[in-house]
Design goal:
homodimer, globular, DNA-binding
Chain lengths: ~220, ~220
Amino acid sequence: MVVGIRFQLNESLFNKDPQDTELGRKILEQSIILINELGIESFNFKKLAAKIESTEASIYRYFDNKHMLLLFLTSWYWEWVEYLIDLNTKNLNNPKDQLKVAIHNIVNASTENPLTSYINENLLHQIIIKESSKVYHTTSVDIENKNGLFLSFKDLVSKVAKIIEGVNPKFPYKRSLASNIFEMSNNQIYFSQHLPRLTDIKHCDKSKIDLEEMISYFVFKILK
Amino acid sequence: MVVGIRFQLNESLFNKDPQDTELGRKILEQSIILINELGIESFNFKKLAAKIESTEASIYRYFDNKHMLLLFLTSWYWEWVEYLIDLNTKNLNNPKDQLKVAIHNIVNASTENPLTSYINENLLHQIIIKESSKVYHTTSVDIENKNGLFLSFKDLVSKVAKIIEGVNPKFPYKRSLASNIFEMSNNQIYFSQHLPRLTDIKHCDKSKIDLEEMISYFVFKILK
DNA sequence: ATTTAATGATAGTATTACTATCATGCCAAA
DNA sequence: TTTGGCATGATAGTAATACTATCATTAAAT
């Protein structure tokens, strides 16, 4: 069966790779819908089991807990963004163009043609915006980092930092600027939706266009 | 009894203002210590009750749940930062100097002389860095925002946006830049402590000095 | 035809996040 | 000095959560 692209994620993220089985893919598909509906706090495996007409026990065979499931989803998302950046910069030689494309893909990943039938990239992007920072703001961050659970995100930030280096080799804050692009991309959209006094981005059809323009403006001014 | 400064916070944050009573102040004092120790996820009112040798029921008389307590603590912190910015900019006429002072206070608030006997500002800053974004990344954000629960933070961001306007009246992204200063300040310190590949700030004695320098560099380059 | 792996069905347990009720003790007005 | 009221403490109870364990069933692989 054709189910689309498949990413090789760190094995500590799951007990059994959900991309490999029908039930696993159903868990991913429906958890994205349910986490969006309920928020990660009210979401639990009992509700998910009911939704997919399976059992809690079966879900636990894939993920130890909902934190791991969220970590899996965010890792999948960052792998996907990295894939898009690779794809769309491979024919570009000018670092400035590469950086523009990277920013475009970070902001607009979810509007690309979907690659994977059981992942709703738009809903997943909403989860990233609202919940992704919770995956590393935990007491277990150091152990999990040691076990490589944040590698997808760290590699992606490193990739963007490298492109920044191409634009301005003397710039001393490439990692911070790179990670800040991601934070800004998530937060400013969230603020436009829920706390509009905290942003200049208006909540409307063209929010992402405005956001991309703003981030480009910031980044290229800083790198000048 | 002298207990230091007292902020008038939105009444919906609590059932009974903890700043008014001995037990209330003990709740604030010890919750800051315990949230730091355990993280907000493992922290609960039962453990706090044990620590202050009181009961769960008594704590519930002040706060509906730990989310409200955290919201109270973060609001207190932002009120305090605003107080510091007001205090230290009131004799400055040059907007650039005002902005420098604002950035300094945002990054270094916790190193100021403590004003309130029962609040450990250093520990509270650590809570802000690690937990504060969780207070608005919830399903109830819109209702709580409507009830004014985020006013302290929104007013503070507006204040910084106003100073930015003074520096460059034509700059079109003052709110986004202002909120981003806060996000960057929290995240980059957190990354330096836990995910060093995501930042150029080294985790050391002078992290905050470096961070202040970096944020100033970013901000003034953007505003040029 | 038999083994094996995946899933389902069911039950149980410790902890969490409260809510309710009543007792106690202290301060302050009458 | 008594009385009333308010803050806190003590205790109990409940529904939901986050698992863990066990055994049965089914489907695919050899």
